[in-house]
Amino acid sequence: MSHLFESLKMGQLTLENRVIIAPMCQYSADEGAATDWHTLHWGRLALSGAGLFILEATAVNPTGRITYADLGLWDDRTEQAIAKSLAVARRYSTMPIAIQLSHAGRKASTQKPWDGGNIIAADQPNGWQPVAPSPIPFTLDGPRPEAASIIDIGHIVADFAAAAKRAERLGIDAIEVHAAHGYLIHQFLSPLSNQRDDQYGGSIENRMRLLLEIIDAIRAAVSDKITLGVRISATDWVDGGWDLEQSIILAKALTVKGCQFIHVSTAGLSPQQQIPVAPEFQVPFADAIKHAVDIPVIAVGLIDKPKAADEIIATGEADAVALARGILYNPHWVWHAAAELGAQVTAPPQYLRSSPHGMPSPIK
């Protein structure tokens, strides 16, 4: 019996299986609004057979975008654009859909990755002034972000709550707060980027404060029907930075606040990071956090072999696995995994004839 294709309870959701599509930026929005590209992309992945589809990092305000082409959810226009694209994806799929709410902080105002990803100065077209916990640039020779004031922080917390309320209105099933990969919340968590001397800096309790306030604000803004979780980077891979020990403290605090899952990644905060990249290299971090909390933990990072993914679940290292680049490359990865592991996934009847010759159908 495949462990990967067992159901999983996550807050109010019951996932059909434990394969999750990780959020992947598409850099294809129009001033924050979803476009026809999102309709095509979301529709394709909604037919993948995964247990949950998390939409890409979605900025809670315009200055929280990584690039000028990032998806956003901060006004009626951006909400209506997402609604339009989601309607097509949902027409032929009952897969639960989550959204990742995000603020880029000092990593904002850049070119698209395929255009070089360079910083765009605030006085140039498609550029703006990034904010951060402290005026410390991402790169040594990069522009200095503006330190967020207490008033700024209050506005950011309110923006997360407002975006969450819009997400529920869109019929989104779950919200993932992006506290990983060197973006604003992660910048507040890490002592490498947070050198404040007020209630948001210094001790780990102070550095966690922004994220915990955001969780409180979202929980107050949405109903109990919404499953709420957080994505973290469990380590900066830099000496003196955010690490696993602090991540476990944070994970425990998040469970107290009512978080219902933790998605465990790593890195993204500093160009000085030294990452030992290898298949499943981040799984030990998920394993350590899973043994510290009693809510579902998602592992991610170069998990591209079905048997390896199944083993992660079978051994209790994580409750679910997330795929990103692997499922972009092969949108039918879940079908192939089901065939290899002797399981079944839900797919449109139009595709039932695609079952490999001589094998039980992996799709139903």
From TrEMBL:
Pfam families: Oxidored_FMN. It comes from Shewanella vesiculosa. The lineage of its organism: Bacteria, Pseudomonadati, Pseudomonadota, Gammaproteobacteria, Alteromonadales. Keywords: Flavoprotein, FMN, NADP, Oxidoreductase. This is NADH:flavin oxidoreductase/NADH oxidase. InterPro entries: Aldolase_TIM (IPR013785), OxRdtase_FMN_N (IPR001155), YqjM-like (IPR044152). Residues 4-340 form the NADH:flavin oxidoreductase/NADH oxidase N-terminal domain. Its cofactor is FMN. The keyword Cell membrane does not apply.
